[in-house]
Amino acid sequence: MGGSSSTPASAPPRPPSPTFKTPWRQLQWGNTQHDLQYVRDFEPEGDAVKQLRVLLYGPVGAGKSSFINSVSTVVRGTIAHTALPSTTNSEGASFTTKYETHKIRKHSWGSYYPFVFNDIMGVEEGSGRGVRVEDIKLAMMGHVMENYKFNPASSLSPSDSGYNSTPSLDDRAHVLVCVCSGNAADISDSVLQKMRQIREAASDLGIPQLLIVTKLDEACPETERNLQNIYKSKFVKKKMTQLSSELGIPLNCILPVKNYSKETSQDADVDALILNALRLILDFGKDFIDKL
Length: 292
Known about the structure:
The protein is of the alpha/beta class. It is built from eight helices and six strands; from the N terminus they run H-E-H-E-E-H-E-H-E-H-H-H-E-H. Strands 2-3-1-4-5-6 form a six-stranded mixed beta sheet, with helices on both faces. Helix 4 (189-205) links the parallel strand 4 and strand 5. It starts with 32 loop residues before the first helix and ends with a helix.
């Protein structure tokens, strides 16, 4: 019998690369000194506002407190715990319940940078849970007093002891920053609706807005392997484009970061992303204060 000839099986097609050949956004890696000096020299212009106030909001567990700690770490040059973050990864109830102002201390004792962060209760699904949209609106206008404990069941009213009836320009929010996790499940319609209402209120007040996306290294192996792949990663760009579409925030106002969480010493690439975000926050806030 004659032998049968067989053709070699063709190799399966190679999967598409998870990264672009060139970054879709440029960042000066390893050259953070210029941005760090800019932050350290920052001063609000004029006499009307003594400190620029950054108000953070977002879903539970997104990393709002960790972002404040990361900013403090980069600016101070030492691992810092300015805000107390939750150590659980649950998407349950908000860990932060009070309205608290977080200052960043300079190297000299008793001296602080002229920008502060306010972390608030997380935005949760359904009614009667998490921070109320009305309370975030009041916080933007400066009506929420320090250490006011948010009540998911009812909003702050002028008759409450935590209501500031005569807010100064310093009490108002000058930048609104939404913080979302790049490693979480898709944001529910209920939470998205609340976040859109918060955005609309900020727009009515003329407050500039940014979106910080955290934990992308946990969701993207290429970024986890090398943080400098963050602007080459197709996953990261897709995630940021999705959030831009859902929340109506322009892509150039969305910044990916990696928070300090498990590190015990600083990392130059983590610093670069945090400083890039912080500088834009300060620039946006400065422009708003100029209008005031």
